[in-house]
Design a protein that fits this description.
Helix 4 packs across helix 5 and helix 6 runs parallel beside helix 7. By secondary structure, this protein is α+β, with helices and mostly antiparallel strands. Helix content is 20%, strand content 30%. The strands form 4 sheets. Strands 2, 4, 5, 8, 9 and 10 form a 6-stranded mixed beta sheet that branches. The two termini are 37 Å apart. The chain has 8 helices and 20 strands.
Length: 426
């Protein structure tokens, strides 16, 4: 563990002298154990030296960490010092170092904290006279917590550790919530993109497949294309029917940002939409350069369990490559303006061209990462046309504020001869 947040002068030479002097004097007045070997074993040497050893510790790294329920955290690092002693292997046998977590603002001595033992980190090259321990914790419930450490020597009282960076003093000045590192427990952010194929190809048969898939995904953010409404008071609306059924299945209420882009097949009002069970802070839409039809990009700032995220979706021209370049350029400009604070951003959509075309290069040059290519660079990940796709034209793009974890195709297998759409979703 090479991060440095605490340093002190090294008194190793002086400590060696004190240690040897105490051993040679043979003073047993403070001995807590029976001396059977005239001070020759490690226990006797330790006990003859000091009765109740002072302990110093800090929570070294990280200052903030995040995991999902039931998943172990990254390694949590703790530095320990025993002033007056060189922490040799025999002395380490008397050290107990635990890492744990508890409710925000609650002292770690409270019974609400949960603890796990940690292990000595023999590879620490920057520890000086300190020693370093590392451990992991596995919280089961979502929430915001403190993580911390506790240390004791020879079954003495626990010393509770907090930060020592930025002029802080670790355990020297006691534990305070203001100087305790944070633990955020939240499940991963789940995103779906899907072209709904309007109301074509027997939508009534496709609807259960789509709802089953979206229910199983438990998505936080959904971007959909070919959102279609049929004329007349009895006309179907594919998105409304999907979301009503989805809400019944999940028990969640969904927020929708929706816009119409053009008339399709002289029958439907077609557009794009964003769907989320989380609160929408604000939203925007921008018309893109005209192609065969009007196209748009729609954007929303969403308050997710992981914080504020900008979600967007678009559907580029299906006929002309240069028009797609112009539309992608305009979409990037609109997203940049909407995301003036450089927040985490996700763009989904049907881009109507593969990753070997110009728009893909345009997006990557603008700082976006193609989630599929990022995780599966050797897998083409075809999404269109179903059920025998031979090109990937559907994308989830991320800016640098988001770390990709996994991606897979959805609705990529017919069920009883029915495909959910002419696109596989992601």
């Amino acid at each position: 563990m090479e991060q440095l947040s605490y340093s002190r002068l090294n008194f190793s030479a002086l400590l060696v002298f004190i240690f040897l002097f105490a051993q040679c004097t043979g003073d047993k007045s403070t001995n807590n154990h029976t001396d059977t070997d005239a001070g020759t074993d490690a226990t006797d040497i330790i006990d003859d030296t000091i009765t109740r050893q002072e302990v110093w510790c800090n929570t070294q790294w990280p200052l903030t960490t995040q995991t999902s329920p039931g998943a172990a955290t990254e390694s949590l690092y703790v530095r320990v010092d025993l002033p007056g002693l060189i922490i040799t292997p025999p002395i380490r046998e008397f050290l107990e170092v635990d890492v744990g977590f508890g409710p925000t603002g609650v002292h770690p001595g409270d019974a609400s904290w949960q603890w796990e033992t940690s292990d000595y980190n023999a590879s620490c090259l920057s520890c000086g006279s300190d020693v370093e321990y590392m451990g992991q914790i596995t919280p089961l419930s979502e929430g915001t917590y403190h993580w911390g450490a506790r240390v004791r020597y020879d079954s003495g009282p626990w010393q509770y550790c907090d930060r020592s960076d930025d002029g802080l003093e670790g355990s020297t000045d006691g534990w305070t919530p203001q100087t305790a590192p944070s633990l955020i427990v939240s499940r991963d952010l789940r995103v779906v993109t899907l072209n709904l194929r309007c109301l074509l190809d027997d939508f009534a048969s496709r609807l259960p497949l789509i709802v089953d898939t979206l229910t199983a995904s438990d998505a936080d953010l959904i971007g959909v294309q070919e959102v279609c409404t049929e004329d007349g008071p009895l006309g179907h609306d594919n998105l409304t029917e999907i979301i009503n059924a989805l809400s019944t299945r999940t028990g969640k209420q969904y927020q929708i940002v929706r816009t119409v882009t053009h008339r399709s097949w002289d029958t439907y009002d077609e557009g794009i939409a964003l769907v989320t069970p989380h609160a929408i802070i604000d939203e925007s839409e921008t018309s893109l350069p005209m192609g065969a039809f009007l196209r748009k990009v729609v954007m929303a700032r969403v308050e997710t369990p992981l914080g504020t995220v900008i979600m967007a979706t678009t559907h580029l021209d299906h006929l002309d490559a240069q028009t797609r370049v112009d539309q992608a350029t305009a979409a990037i400009s609109a997203l940049t303006a909407f995301n003036s604070l450089s927040e985490p951003l996700i763009l989904t959509g049907d881009f109507n061209e593969g990753p070997d075309a110009v728009v893909h290069s345009l997006m990557t040059d603008a700082g976006f990462s193609d989630l599929w290519s990022n995780l599966y660079p050797l897998d083409p990940g075809y999404t269109f046309p179903m059920p025998a796709p031979d090109i990937r034209i559907d994308y989830i793009w991320l800016n640098h504020k988001i770390t990709p974890l996994s991606i897979s195709r959805i609705l990529d297998t017919p069920v009883a001869g029915v495909t959910g759409s002419d696109h596989a979703g992601l």
